[in-house]
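Lecture notes, unit on binding sites. The following record was shown on slide 14. It pairs a sequence with S-adenosylmethionine.
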Amino acid sequence: MNYRHSFHAGNFADLVKHALVLWLLKTRHAAGPVMVLDTHAGAGLYDLTGDAARSREAEAGVARLMAAEARPPLIEALASEVAALNPDSQVRFYPGSPVLIARALRADDHYVGFELREEVAGLLRESLRDFPGARGEIGDGYDLVRAEARQARGALVLIDPPFERPDDYLRAAETAGAIVNADPDAIVAVWTPLKDLETFDGFLRRLAAATTAPTLIAEARLRPLTDPMKMNGCAMVIVNPPAGTDAAATEICGWVADTLGDAGARAEVWRA
Ligand SMILES: C[S@@+](CC[C@H](N)C(=O)[O-])C[C@H]1O[C@@H](n2cnc3c(N)ncnc32)[C@H](O)[C@@H]1O
């Protein structure tokens, strides 16, 4: 496995994923204490002066987010989180999903993040040290999340694989299906890259075979999907979307496509 999220932290795809996760968590809060499960947690917190400076993806993502003059509310919510980690106004630190979620937990909420790579899991645990409701576990998130989800009714689950293994799409679809079939109150959000439509449609077919639960697809396309070797956009596929998800996803994906995309960029939010 070669994937290192430190090269991609703070890119446009992180902005879509994290703004939507923040909104889902806030919405979930209305129903009482929340358990958030993160199958592919990563390091938790990223110093953008490292690998991200070399890839320049954060420069095209979070740096432009923080420089933007007009930000709609759900984008502003993410910008506020980034600003809180960077008090001297330079954008040096970017929160991964673990720290972003841990910072938003209330007293009775919990977060468990799973990470396969031992050295990254060490960073994950270190990043969560000051958050009593949050913990990092070493191991295969697809396997470990089901038991945790069974114990916590109505969990909010994020599935965010690197998609470097051929079976990631299949395992993501099967895991999402198994969770919502066992607990109709669970919400599962799967992040995927958008390279070509065949791959994405294949994932949606696998998901439809795994569950009949309602599914919303939120796409932010930065350019037409003509080059399958590039990440031309990204999608969040939300199973059991709560009321208001269509509008929230439209606001978030629309801002990212309009502000960070090329000519021909567009957002699409639809139901499978
Ligand atoms: C896209 S990154 C996660 C980013 C993180 N969710 C965030 O938003 O900040 C994917 C992570 O999953 C880890 N990983 C890969 N396969 C895994 C598996 N089967 N179970 C748990 N973690 C895995 C990788 O090492 C990598 O750190």
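Take-home: The domain at 5-271 is CATH 3.40.50.150 (Rossmann fold).
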